[in-house]
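2024-03-11 09:14:02 DEBUG pipeline.ingest accepted 1 chain
2024-03-11 09:14:02 DEBUG pipeline.ingest length=145
2024-03-11 09:14:03 DEBUG pipeline.predict start
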Amino acid sequence: MSIYRQLLILTVICSFSLVQVNNAQAKDVTVYRWVDENNVVHYSQHEPISDDFTTIQVDTAYSPVQAPLKDTALAGDEESKNNQLARASATKCKNAQTNFRTLSDFDKIEVTSEDGKSRLLSGLEKQQRLRLSEKEVELYCDSGK
């Protein structure tokens, strides 16, 4: 038997064993080999109709892929990211509290629009911004508690 034919057989057997491991996590796999009337070699996991075939038993073992352990460098990066997030959260909390306090403590609030013009907030606008600031305080300051 030529080396190419042996490699082909080995490749087919391996591919069938991989399919079986993935599908059924099987222990034993039966592969059937036969040659048709045109001298073409066939492999299948289903038994052929003709009586002239060879049975090949393939033993497979299944073991789940294990997740790699985290490197200490990755853990350090994670801690650094957590520290950055904590600082950003603290800053947002402080800003939200300042906005809420400003809107609560003063009757008249002056805002500057994008074009640089200043105007006073109406009562409705002030109430809307006050509710928004209250929600921001809840979101940024109470999230870790």
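2024-03-11 09:14:41 DEBUG pipeline.report The chain is about 50% helix and 15% strand.
2024-03-11 09:14:41 DEBUG pipeline.predict end
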